[in-house]
Amino acid sequence: MENATLNNGVKMPLLGFGTYLLQGGLACEQAVLNALNIGYRLIDTAAAYQNEESVGSAIKKSNVKREEIFVTTKFLPADIGYEKAKRAFETSLNKLGLDYIDLYLIHIPQGDVNSSWRAMEEFYREGKVRAIGVSNFHITQIQNLHKQHSVIPAVNQVETHPFSQKTEMQKALKSQGIQLESWAPFVQGKNNLFNNELLKVLSSKYHKSIAQVVLRWLIQREVVVIPKSENVKRMNENFNVFDYELSADDMETIKSLDKGSGLIYSV
To answer: Where is the site described as Lowers pKa of active site Tyr found in this chain (predicted)?
Structure first.
């Protein structure tokens, strides 16, 4: 597995498994177990997904050592604020059944994010979390956070895919040492991604699925990506993207698909 090195030296897998819309229960637990058995080592969840207990149960039942698994979770906008953020973190930690979380994120930039970040800095300094970051933040919101606090966000997780490529955002984040992470790499099936003619040509050229081409394109851009699927065949397919590379010309060609804004959440 290839890794990204965060601004505090922590290694984060470039490819992970997302759990959005995997409701808590045995189905979610089995999906995460399958992902770990396939080789995924980054598991992404959130309080809003209501599946942290299932994710934690799968981690316990797996044969993978805890230190080999990179766990990300996020807290709800309702828990913005210093005291609420502290309670939300402990709740997530208990539901996951873990001693620490690898990456803890503010899910949406609403409310008193500065007080929340102060609480997150405390978790980080206490060793309860290995890295802290944000999700769905504009670059100006990150800069404002940066100006008022000593710990720089390690990650910004935003909608990133061929139709919303976040090229300029990635450059700005990189200049501050912040890792870009993609959610919804397949646009949740919107905009007819899997029938896109340009991606079909690349799929045929490399003998890979369109999903594999998209994931490879993101990984070559050094964007962390967290595809989600309950289908074991597709989970295996999504994981099998490290045995080839897209050419520089083909990477450039995919740029033509960029529409400049998100199709799901505008950042």
So the answer is: 74
